[in-house]
Write a structure and sequence with these properties.
This protein has about 190 residues and is of the alpha+beta class. The protein has a single domain, classed as Aminopeptidase, CATH 3.40.630.30. Helices cover about 35% and strands about 25% of the residues. The protein is built from 5 helices and 8 strands. Strands 1, 2, 3, 4, 5, 6, 7 and 8 form an 8-stranded mixed sheet that branches. A hairpin with a 2-residue loop joins strand 2 and strand 3. It is globular and about 40 Å long. Its EC number is 2.3.1.-. This is GNAT family N-acetyltransferase.
């Protein structure tokens, strides 16, 4: 499986990722292309595309938070026709390897999952737990979306475990979202 990553806007690579992105996330649950472009212009994210036999099979948008030393996975999806083949787990492992090389100070990965107790959300949580992530108890409510979320985290070093405090993890996630949705750079993107 080929793993391609860019920190700059790449029209061709985005076109490959966008097909999977649109398939996996409804319009109300994804950032617009304009917002994603702006994120790249400000150096806020990285795009990952995984290809199998030359065809895009999975995608992810990530952001490294240097304040917390965590990689935030904003979106990750496997093409529906390729699901159930272990690709998602391989993507997570490759993200861990990639960020460990790109940011040696990174000590973990954090994601947010929907908190509502549905069968679909339970499957997502089960997937992340099978990849080594821990689910936190704290339920976070954003002011700008009706859904509630919980943080899940994967620490890289057992000797330096990540916090189990979901409120603390959401500081990193919220800082990322605030920077992503900010309309102008306004001097600094540090929140």
């Amino acid at each position: 499986m080929e793993h391609l990553t860019t920190n700059e806007w790449n029209e061709a690579l985005w076109a490959e990722a966008d097909a999977i992105y649109r398939e996996a996330f409804p319009e109300h649950g994804r950032k617009s292309e304009a917002i994603v472009r702006r994120m790249f212009e400000r150096g806020l994210c990285a795009l990952h595309v995984w290809r199998i036999e030359g065809e895009a099979a999975a995608m992810a948008l990530t952001s490294y938070d240097d304040r917390s030393g965590l990689l935030v996975v904003d979106y990750i999806a496997v093409r529906q026709a390729r699901q159930g083949q272990g690709i998602g787990r391989r993507c997570v492992l490759q993200l861990r390897d990639w960020i460990s090389r790109a940011q040696p100070g990174c000590h973990g990965i954090v994601i947010e999952v929907e908190a509502e107790e549905t069968e679909e959300n339970a499957r997502r949580i089960c997937f992340w737990q099978s990849a080594g992530f821990r689910l936190t108890d704290y339920v976070h409510a954003y002011v700008w979306v009706p859904e509630t979320y919980r943080a899940m985290a994967l620490g890289f070093d057992a000797a330096l475990p990540l916090t189990d405090d979901g409120r603390e993890l959401f500081k990193t996630i919220t800082r990322y979202h605030e920077r992503a949705y900010r309309k102008t750079k306004g001097g600094s993107d540090k929140v």
